[in-house]
Structure formats: structure tokens, C-alpha cells
Amino acid sequence: MADRPYTLLSCGMSIDGYLDSAETARLLLSNAADFDRVDAERARCDAILVGATTIRADNPRLVVRSAARRAERVARGRPASPVKVTLTRRGDLPASAAFFTTGDSDKIVYCPGPAAARVRARLGAVATVVATGAAADVDVAGVLEHLSARGVDRVMVEGGGTVLTQFLTAGLVDELHLVVAPLFVGDSRAPRLVGDGCFPWNASRRAQLAGVREIGDVVLLRYALSKRFCAEPAAGAVR
Fold first, then answer.
1. Could you tell me if 120 and 189 are in contact, meaning their C-beta atoms sit under 8 angstroms apart?
2. I want to staple 144 with a disulfide (CB 3.0 to 4.6 A). Which of 4, 102, 208, 224 is the partner?
3. How far apart are CA 68 and CA 76, in angstroms?
4. Are 162 and 142 in contact (CB under 8 A)?
């Protein structure tokens, strides 16, 4: 699919491969320096994508936090923050979530065709709802095709585990930024980095490690996952 946006998948995990704990409070896996790096990566993108579970569990704002970076985007004729995108099977999303109520960028919700009318009724005017087909699941390839048609050239996928699994198993990721935090979760109730699936990178086809960077007490692993991998330094990289 040559016309899809360049797709960067960004996530953090514990040493034992968990995205979060099983507790109600969100587990912060990273540190201030790495959060700033992620903010710089967001500022380079046209869209940020997360799953509906992430919105319900974490209530993220998904905006560029740095005033200087927002001003730089506006000076280049872009919105202060990237377009916000989410995927949902059922449309169980609160219209009052920070995803919808913060920032001036467009908000797009992709869902299966059978759920589209229900999702539009639930969300009203806070987002554009796009049906991805008649199947019961969201067609992630179709999502990227639609975003490309809207002028999105670079999209950052931030999770959670179901969305990460969907994009990775579909072979739709060009670059992976994986931050490893120096802690263990040790609780099988907690969400894992990915679920079961047939991944293009396996024992017979290993992913290409493109860089390693220590950021305080965490480590950033950068992987090239397609021939479209952009070899330019990642945001905030030491040159």
C-alpha cells in the first residue's frame, strides 16, 4: 500500500513486557526527558492514533505540549497539534473525553460500518465518524488509506495493545520506537505490549535495530520495520 502515510509506532513497556499495571492509576513507565522526546515526535506528525480503550482508561489529551513546538507548527501553516484519531469497535466513547474537548485539531473516529450510526448519535458534533466497511472490526489498512486521502503524510500510533497488535500484524508499521522502563509489573491481569498474532518479524525474519539511546533510566530502541524507514535522526536524538 504505497499511498499510506509513513507510520511510526511509539510505545513504552516494563522489562517484562507490560504497557501498564492492573491498578486503576496509570503506571508511568517513562521520565520527563522521554516524555519531551515523545512530544517532539508528535510535533513532527500530521496525526496521532490511539485505541478507544486508551481513551477510556487514560483520558489522554493527545496534543503537542510544548508552546514553542505548537508555535512552530502554526508558523508553517499547520494546526498547533496533529489530527487526533481513534479506532473503536462498539463506539463506547464519552463525548466529554479530553480527546474530543481539548485542542483545535480535527478528531476522527473510525469504526465498523454496522456501528457507525450508533457512534455518530453518541458523539454528535465532537468528531467525524468514518465507517471502515461491513466487517465487525476496524480495517486498519483502510484507516491509513483514508488518512492519506485527507493529506496525512506521517502518523504516530501510540496504542494500546490491541491497536499495536493490529498495525504490527498487518505489516503497516515503518518505524517502531520502543522504550523499556527499568521495572517489572509481574501481573498477568495487566495489559501486554501486544496480543497473539502472526507478526511479519519472527525467528526467521528478525526486525532491524536502527538505534539505541539511553534517556535517563529508560532505553529507547528504534527499529526499521519497512523499506520506507526514514534514516534521519529521531526527534531529540544526539547528533
1. no
2. 4
3. 13
4. no
The secondary structure of 174-193 as a DSSP string is: SEEEEEE-S-----TTSPBS
List the Cα angle 100/106/112 in 5-degree steps.
75
Structure confidence at residue 3 (pLDDT)? 81
pLDDT band at 238 (very low <50, low <70, confident <90, very high): very low
Q: Could you give phi then psi for residue 85, rounded to 5 degrees?
A: -130, 140
Per-residue pLDDT, 76: 96
The DSSP symbol for 171 reads T
Mean pLDDT for 171-199 is 97
**DSSP at 122:** H
Domains annotated for the chain, with CATH where assigned, are 6-224 (3.40.430.10)
Q: What is the mean pLDDT of the chain?
A: 94
Spatial separation of the C-alpha atoms in residues 96 and 44, rounded to whole Å: 27
- Strand bridging mode 175-180 / 218-224: antiparallel
Does pLDDT of 189 surpass 90?
A: yes
What is the rounded distance in angstroms from the CA atom of residue 171 to the CA atom of residue 140?
10
Instruction: Quote the cell numbers at residue 70.
Output: 505548537
Quote the crossing angle between the two packed helices 67-75 and 32-43, to the nearest 10°.
Answer: 10
